[in-house]
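Task: sequence design from structure.
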């Protein structure tokens, strides 16, 4: 039986776990920045139109196969599966929010591809794929389900909700049941918790950053490292930097001590920015302490322009999330 696994970047180790012909990690990050257009996402999966196309494609992240060599290069995902006679396409996505977004996106795409849709198997991965060793991947029982039209429809509804220009439809997902997508609702609630609080104006991760700095953790390395002090499943270490800068560089900053050179460095200058982060020694300002204690609203004094799914958050369009009542609050 010829098997192909679609997964997140956390699941690349699956190639060593089971007799599988190919593991294709999907690399998009949907939890920060503007969402890619539907056209861009389709191009990623449908292969290069000409050999020197500079855009990254699904096949660029797939290693050479002992069975097919580099036959997948420059081909569309479904076209390759059909030509190679793939019998089973397995979806391995754990509960991490971005992985759940990848899952609903790829399900929505494959629903209109009959060859792939008929061969799909959804794996319910109830552990973190990132860092899971080969023994655990081989020995851990992972339930599998055939994908039905109802599952495709659930994914379509959820993906359209996340791409909508307001978070209202995503909030509505919390009242629905997704039997074969058990991690989708918890992921959506974690994402909603990153909307500004009605009291402090901060999302869940921003609040954690202030709290840790207040407790004396003043180095970005211990704040940013995977599996470290910061208990966030939404953002990766590369996405935490802009959040920290937003708290430290506004008209009334909540954080002091961030290297001022960051303001002059290009976003793509990873080496320079990492060095500046390492030089930083962070502390809370008096205003930052007032925000953390709920006595001030950070957004009252500082501008916001940040994407949440398809929603552009600004001070004029400030959707908020109340974690105590689990309620979405519309702009006033």
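Answer:
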């Amino acid at each position: 039986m010829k098997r192909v696994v679609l997964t997140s970047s956390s699941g690349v180790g699956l190639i060593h776990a089971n007799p599988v012909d190919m593991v294709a990690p999907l690399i998009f990050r949907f939890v920060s920045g503007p969402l890619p257009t539907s056209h861009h996402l389709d191009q990623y999966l449908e292969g290069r139109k000409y050999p020197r196309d500079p855009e990254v494609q699904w096949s660029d992240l797939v290693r050479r196969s002992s069975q097919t060599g580099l036959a997948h290069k420059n081909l569309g995902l479904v076209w390759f599966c059909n030509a190679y006679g793939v019998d089973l396409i397995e979806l391995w996505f754990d509960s991490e929010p971005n992985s759940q977004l990848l899952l609903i996106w790829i399900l929505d795409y494959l629903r209109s591809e009959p060859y792939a849709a008929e061969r799909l198997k959804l794996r319910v991965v109830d552990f973190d794929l990132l860092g899971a060793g080969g023994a655990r991947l081989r020995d851990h029982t992972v339930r599998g389900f055939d994908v039905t039209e109802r599952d495709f429809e659930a994914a379509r509804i959820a993906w359209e909700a996340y791409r909508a220009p307001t978070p209202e439809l995503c909030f509505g997902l919390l009242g629905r049941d997704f039997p074969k997508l058990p991690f989708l609702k918890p992921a959506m609630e974690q994402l909603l918790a990153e909307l500004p609080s009605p009291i402090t104006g901060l999302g869940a991760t921003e609040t954690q950053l202030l709290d840790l700095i207040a407790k004396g953790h003043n180095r970005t390395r211990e704040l940013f490292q995977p599996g470290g002090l910061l208990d966030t499943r939404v953002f990766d270490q590369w996405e935490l930097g802009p959040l920290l800068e937003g708290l430290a560089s506004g008209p009334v900053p909540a954080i002091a001590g961030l290297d001022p050179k960051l303001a002059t460095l290009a976003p793509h200058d990873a080496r320079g920015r990492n060095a500046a982060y390492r030089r930083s020694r962070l502390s809370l300002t008096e205003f930052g302490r007032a925000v953390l204690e709920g006595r001030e609203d950070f957004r009252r004094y500082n501008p916001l322009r940040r994407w949440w799914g398809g929603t552009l958050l600004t001070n004029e369009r400030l959707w908020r999330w109340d974690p105590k009542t689990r309620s979405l609050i519309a702009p006033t």
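Residues 317 and 331 are 6 Å apart (CA to CA).
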